[in-house]
C-alpha cells in the first residue's frame, strides 16, 4: 500500500514518514516543491539506514504524490490545508485521505480550539474533497517525540470517519505503528471532540512542565 | 475541611462522597430533600464501616450543606444544575464551588458536546455564582468505577479556574484521592476542552466495547 504524506517535509510529516516506512508501507513524501520532497525522502531513508532499518521512501510534489497514493495524509497547517485540499481535489479523488489537522488559536498563554463553521477541520475537508474517503486521525500525536526513533510511547489514536471501510483501513495503519493503538471514535462529526483534545494537551503540557503529552484511554 | 457534595445521592455523588471521606475530608451529602441526604449519608458510612474504614459523612438539604461547607461540588445533571445554582447562590457565596458538569446530547449513537452560549457549563455556572470561586474538575471520572471501592485506576483529572488559589486547593483535593492525579488545565475558559473530552470517552467506550473509560496524559 502506498501512503503519501503531503507536507511530509514538516514536523509531523517526518515522524509519519519514518514510522510508516518502518511499518512496511511504501511512503511518498509530498511537498509543494518536488525537489525538496526528493531531498527529504533521501534524508529520511538515510536516517533509517543509519539504524539498520529498511524502508521505501520516495519524494514528489504534492499533486504527483497524491496521484500515486492509495492513502494520503494532509500533514499541512490548518491555515493552508483547505486551499491545498482544493488544489489537490482531482488527484485525491477516490483515495483515502487522512486529516491530522487541528485548527487552534493562542490567546496569551491559552490554546483554544477554533473550528471552522462546518464543525471541525475534518468536516470542512470532507466538504472540499467530496470524491475522497476522508478519515480523521493522529491529531493528538506530538510531532517531536513521534519523530524521535529512540522514543518509547504507548498512545491511543482516536479515528473518525463516515466511511466504515476506510476507517477500518486507517485503524490498521495506526495499529501497524509500534506504540500506537487506534480506537474507533465514531463518524466524522465526532472529529471536533478529538481535534479539541489537542489544545487541552498543549495547555496541560505548558502548565505542568511536561513536554509533548499525548493521551491514553484507561 | 468540609466538602458538600450537592446531589451527592446520585451516580457521581456516591464515589465522590466515599472517596473524599476516605481521604479525610468531612463530607456533607446534599440533596433536595434533607431526609434523603441523611439516609444516604448513613448508607455511605455503613459502606465504609463494612470495610473497616473510617469517614465522617453527614447529610443535609442542599442549602444547608452549602452553608456548612468550605468547598461544594455541584453533582447535579446539567439540565437542572443552572437552576439549582441560582437558588443556592447566597449559600454558596464565598465558597469554592467545583463543577463536574458536562452538557451533552445524544444523536442516535453519537454523544456530542452541547455547551451553553457562555462557552462551557463552568463559565455559565461562574456567571450565575458571581460571589463564589468556581473551579472545574472531575468531568472525565466515570461514576460507576469510581464508586466501586474494589476498583483500581490511575486517572488524570484536569482542573480549570480563574482563581489560582482555589485551583491549588482543588488540585490538592483531587490528589488526595488514591488513583487520581490533578493537572492544571488553565483558566475556566479551558473547561470547554475538558467537558468536550467526556462525550469522546463515551463514544470510544461504546464503539470499542470497553466500559467506563477515563483518561491519562502520557
Ligand atoms: C518544539 C519547539 O517549539 P515550537 O516549535 O514552538 O513547537 C511548539 C509546538 O508547536 C509543538 O510542541 C507541537 O508539537 C504542539 N502540538 C501541535 N502543534 C500544532 O501546531 N498543531 C498540532 O496539531 C499539534 C498537535 C499536538 C499534539 C500533541 C502535543 O503534545 C503537541 C501538539 C521548541 O523547541 N520549543 C522550545 C521553546 C520555544 C518557545 O516557544 N519558548 C517560549 C517560552 C517557553 C517557556 O515559557 O518555557 C518563548 O520563546 O516565548 C521548548 O519547548 O523548549
Ligand atoms: C451504567 C448503566 O447505564 P446508564 O445508567 O445508562 O449509564 C450510562 C452512562 O450514563 C454512564 O456510563 C456514565 O458514567 C457515562 N458518563 C457520564 N454520563 C453522564 O450522563 N454525564 C457525565 O458527565 C458522564 C461522564 C462520564 C465520564 C467518563 C465515562 O467513562 C462515562 C461518563 C448500565 O447499567 N448500563 C447497562 C446497559 C444500559 C443501556 O443503556 N443499554 C442499551 C444497550 C447497550 C448496548 O448496546 O450494549 C439499551 O438499553 O439500549 C450496561 O452498560 O451494560
Ligand atoms: N506539530 C505537531 O505536533 C502536530 C501533531 C499532530 C497533528 N498536527 C497537524 O499536522 C499538520 C501539520 O503540522 P506540522 O506541525 O507538521 O506543520 P509544519 O511543520 O509547520 O508544516 C508542514 C508542511 O506544510 C507545508 N506547507 C506550509 N505552508 C503551506 C502552504 N501554504 N500550502 C501547502 N503546504 C504548505 C510545508 O511543506 P513544503 O514547504 O514542503 O510544501 C511544511 O513542511 C497540522 O494541520 C497540524 O495541526 C501537528
Ligand atoms: N455519571 C457520570 O459518570 C459522571 C461523571 C463525571 C461527571 N458527571 C457529572 O456530574 C453531574 C451529576 O451526574 P450524575 O450522573 O451523578 O447524575 P444523577 O445521578 O442523574 O443525579 C445526581 C443528583 O442530582 C439531583 N437532582 C436531580 N434532579 C434535580 C433537580 N431538578 N434539581 C436539583 N437536583 C436534582 C438528585 O439528587 P436528589 O434527588 O437527592 O436531590 C440526583 O441524585 C452531571 O452534571 C454530570 O455531567 C457525571
UniProtKB/TrEMBL annotation, chains A, B:
The protein's name in its UniProt record: NADPH-dependent F420 reductase
Keywords: Oxidoreductase
UniProt keyword annotation of Oxidoreductase present: yes
PANTHER family: DUDULIN-RELATED (PTHR14239), F420-DEPENDENT NADP REDUCTASE (PTHR14239:SF0)
SUPFAM superfamilies linked: NAD(P)-binding Rossmann-fold domains (SSF51735)
InterPro entries to which the protein is assigned, alphabetical: NAD(P)-bd_dom_sf, NpdG, P5C_Rdtase_cat_N, STEAP_metalloreductase
A Pfam family of this chain: F420_oxidored
One MF annotation (Gene Ontology) recorded for this entry: cupric reductase (NADH) activity
All residue ranges annotated as the Pyrroline-5-carboxylate reductase catalytic N-terminal domain in the record: 2-102
GO biological process: copper ion import; NADPH regeneration
Single GO cellular component term: plasma membrane
